[in-house]
Amino acid sequence: MAIQNSSESFLGDVLDIAKIQTGSTAEQIQKTVALIPNTLKEDAALAVDIVDAAGLNDLGKISVDADATITSNSSAKSTADATNVSANSSGLAIVDGNFGLNGANDLGTKSTEIDVKSDAGLNATASTTVKASASTSKGDAVSLASIQDSAGIANIKDLDVGGELSAIGKAANIITASAETVVNASTVDLNGLPAENGAQATAELFGTQQGFNAQSVDSSSNASIQGISSLTNSATASVTTGDLALAEGLAGTLIGANLDGIDVGGIANVTGQTTFGNTSKATNVEGDAKAISRLGSADGLISKTDSLAPDLGTTAAFEVSSDATIKGLTSVTAGATAETTKGDAVASSSATNINGADFKGTLDIGGIGSIAGASSFNLSASANSVTGDGPNTNHMGGAQAFAGEKLLSADASNVSATNINALSSFGLKGINGSVTSAVNDTGTFGIDIASDATLTGTAIGSLNADAASTADDATAKAGGFASLTGAIIGDLHVGGIAGLTGGAQLTSSSTAKNVGDNLNGGHDALAASGLNATVTGLSGLPDGTASALQSFIDVASDATVTAQAFGTLNAIASSTGGDATAKAGNSSSVVTGLASGLDLDVGGVGTVSALAQGSEKASATSVDGIADADAGMTLVGAKNLNFDSNSDGTLTGIAKLVATVDAANIGSADNDALANGAFSAIGFSGLLIGDLASINTAAGVSPSVTGHADVVGIGGISTIKGQAQIAGTLNAESVSGDAFAGVNDIASMITGMSNVILNGASDGTLLGTASGAFNTNAIATGRDASAFSSQVLKGIDQLDLQLGGNGGINAIVNDTNFVGAQSVSGNATAVASVNAIGLDGGDMHIAGNASIMSTVGVDSKSESHTIA
Prior knowledge:
Layout: H1 12-17, H2 26-34, H3 38-41, E1 45-59, E2 61-64, E3 68-83, E4 89-103, E5 113-116, E6 120-138, E7 141-156, E8 158-161, E9 165-183, E10 198-214, E11 217-219, E12 223-259, E13 262-264, E14 268-303, H4 309-312, E15 318-320, E16 324-342, E17 345-359, E18 363-365, E19 369-387, E20 399-403, H5 409-413, E21 424-430, E22 447-449, E23 453-469, E24 474-478, E25 483-489, E26 492-494, E27 498-514, E28 525-529, E29 534-540, E30 551-555, E31 559-575, E32 580-584, E33 590-594, E34 598-602, E35 606-622, E36 627-645, E37 649-665, E38 673-689, E39 718-734, E40 739-742, E41 748-760, E42 764-780, E43 785-803, E44 807-823, E45 828-840, E46 844-846, E47 850-866
Parallel strand pairs: 1-4, 2-5, 3-6, 4-7, 5-8, 6-9, 7-10, 8-11, 9-12, 10-12, 11-13, 12-14, 13-15, 14-16, 14-17, 15-18, 16-19, 17-20, 17-21, 18-22, 19-23, 20-24, 21-25, 22-26, 23-27, 24-28, 25-29, 26-30, 27-31, 28-32, 29-33, 30-34, 31-35, 32-36, 33-36, 34-36, 35-37, 36-38, 37-39, 38-40, ...
């Protein structure tokens, strides 16, 4: 393998030119070592260890006329330990590959095919331990512990079993790297320029690690298949006096089970599981410290389109004749810690994709189906710096911590040579089939289950960034542009009763604290959490991913759909001599229970429950600088849902938010305190239940049958509830500057339900509730105090309704709005504005008795006090 230069490597020349090939002769290794620059080679300690292992490797065709048991375990250990006293030290421990069972790579000329006429047991495990260490008292220390590729079972073209199949593929690996120096060398790089010296430790999965990988698996009877991938990374770099301590824990691709095509003639139990733990720690006394934890992708289960489907007699990538239980599980825990006394500290913990179960091909189950996908992650970054004026002239900006944050330009340059992508995670994902109409559901569904079905997708994530500096800037960012979705469903057909659940939860926290130095322009504290992040419980496939058509869910009997999304965003910033800025979300931070793109057709009783719930806290405190706290979030219970039920239908959409924004400037400097909020919540937005061709439809909602006769959406009793609620507290206080609290341009929007079309055959009850509770205060001692708070509330906005029985419509709006402004020596301005409407717009026809009620209660008050 070629050891590639990490983008963060200050001794990258060593890693870039150490093109060590597995199985190299001593002469070849000696020639390679000779390429290492003099900065490392002179009087240096160099330890290199290379391993390549496989239990079963490069197999061809295996044919067994009876039962077969195939077991293979490969345990590989690579250790490189280099120590020195007065010169450089380098330890390179490399595992080019470790496989339990590794089939033929070249499928064009040779392939691994296993054919067993009766029952088969297949169990293969790869376990790897890689450890590299380098230490010196005076000089540079660099260690690399690396795995290129590893798998329990990999590169199987065809596994064909005539009886029952039990197959387990497992890869469990540990990578550890440590580097330590007391005083680094003063050297130049290959170009003769001053080099960054110190200690670097890199623990890296360079390529791919898989539990079970097969292109085709065919079992005539029952089958149990497990793919397990587990990786633990640890990198530690320590310097007493040196330019840089750099610790990197890096991983490319991890997959539990990677299965192109499966055909099971009986009952199937398939599980793909991935677990990843990553720890990076860099410490320095006089110099910079940088800790990087980075993951490319982690997937529990991937099922791709099967190129061999015609050979298996199926058009599905994943086909089970009887019942099936399928699980894809992924768990990621990663932390980065950077600490220095005199210098800059940068810590970054990032991942691009963390997913549970991903069906890239169609799934066909002939019996009862239970499908679950779950992803969970916890990413943390901590940076601590006392002073930012270390010996390194490349000033990185005090203490910087990034957790699950999309980084571009200046921020990324301190972490990586390239931009860092936004974090994306989902629990369960299924593709679109070829179905083109919810009314005429001909074609192939992405997921087709003949009997009862339970589908569950969850994505739960926690992000935490903590930055602290005494005399320099402190920056903490978490969750910028992050995207979490519980379940993403293309086309789904269920022949019996269906239970579909999608849940997502993001908790993002950032804390930045510094003392700063106001005499030198001030050093600031910035904390940002969840800016432009999206959290969605259940969604159809967005346009362009597989089909521009809407995703269809067709259930022959009763269906229960539950979609829940939770977003918690916290940002805390405090500074003594500089500005303090805290941003917890913005108007583009969106939490949605049930997202756009779903068309639900239920043959029995249909129940839909959608919840979007958010919590925000932004706090900024400064003594001699500006204190700026901002919070924003948009919440939608359910959006643009098409629903049809032959029997009763009950739909509930709820959006709830609690937000607190505090800004305080307590020093003598003439600086302001700003507390801003931008909030929106709606229970139902765009709900189409049947068609009302004779009634002008609501703006933005298109009937599925345009120009035709009315179509009943709910054949039994209709129950629709939409609820939205926001509680906001905003406080700004300044001793010597202005104080502003409230909204600048846009009022907070709170709507129970909007743009609803319902054609119900029998009785119907609709309830739309909007409630708000706002408390906004601005207090200034030396200058002006201004407070503004504005809300627009509607219980029901635009309802087009037709009921064949009795109808009850109830719209409720409640709002309390207090705005206060106080100033000792300046102006005090308090403005409160509320626009509240119970039921606004629409056409209704009710065949039976009707009860239409609207209740609006508003308690709004503004107070201003000034002494001057």
